[in-house]
Amino acid sequence: MVTFLITSLLVVAIIAIAVYFWQKPASKPETFELPPPRATALFADSEPSEVAETAEHELLTSGEAERETDQTLRAREELDAAIQSWRESPTKSSIATMLHLAATTDDAETYRATVELALDSWQGGSITDLSAGELLTLMNSEYWLLSSQTRSSGAGFVLKRTLSTAKRELENTNNRT
Predict the structure, then answer these.
(1) Looking at the domain assignment, is residue 98 inside a domain?
(2) Smallest Cα–Cα separation from 160: which of 138, 176, 174, 144?
(3) pLDDT tens across the length of the chain (177 residues)
(4) For residues 48 and 40, what is the distance between their CA atoms, to the nearest angstrom?
(5) How far is CA 86 from CA 79, 94, 98, 120, 164, in A?
(6) How many other CB atoms sit within 10 Å of the CB of residue 89?
(7) What is the DSSP string of 56-115?
(8) Count of structural domains, the chain
(9) Cα–Cα distance for residue pair 136/91, rounded to 1 Å
């Protein structure tokens, strides 16, 4: 009896396996292909209006670059004038103007040099109407005017280290007073 049961189970299993392998494979899903790219020559025929639009775009782009260069030059000239004015009479407002103009040049090295100049002047005692906390806040807030590309550059890294050093020095000054 046990032999008959085991044999029948084996036969049923073999038949199930055979049916499984003999059945038709499921139909493959349709694959959608993109049409082949349109063949074009190296110098494809283009409409004169397209050429004119491209040339106009290039002129606008170069004009924007020239404007940015002019703005940078003007910002540097204004910064030089502000530094000269600040050296004649260092005040809270003149140092704020100087740091702001240095940040608008979008040059990390220029901003770093200006921060060091302001910090040295403050530590020397020539600016009495500005607390350590105010100077630190001013330097850090103007830092964010620099573009992200400038902040993440190598000079930006040196600037971050300078700001970090300034922060430690100014916080130590606050803690002592």
Answers:
(1) yes
(2) 144
(3) 889 889 999 999 999 988 888 886 656 666 777 777 776 656 555 544 454 455 455 544 555 556 667 777 888 888 888 888 888 888 888 888 899 989 988 899 999 999 999 898 888 888 778 888 999 999 999 999 999 999 999 999 999 999 999 999 888 876 655
(4) 17
(5) 10, 5, 8, 13, 24
(6) 9
(7) HHHHHHHHHHHHHHHHHHHHHHHHHHHHHHHHHS--HHHHHHHHHHHHHTT-HHHHHHHH
(8) 1
(9) 15
| Both tokens assigned to 9 | 């189970």
Residues 134/138/139/145 CA torsion (nearest 10 deg): 170
Asked whether residue 104 is domain-assigned, the answer is: yes
Expressed as residue numbers, the domain containing 105 is: 91-177
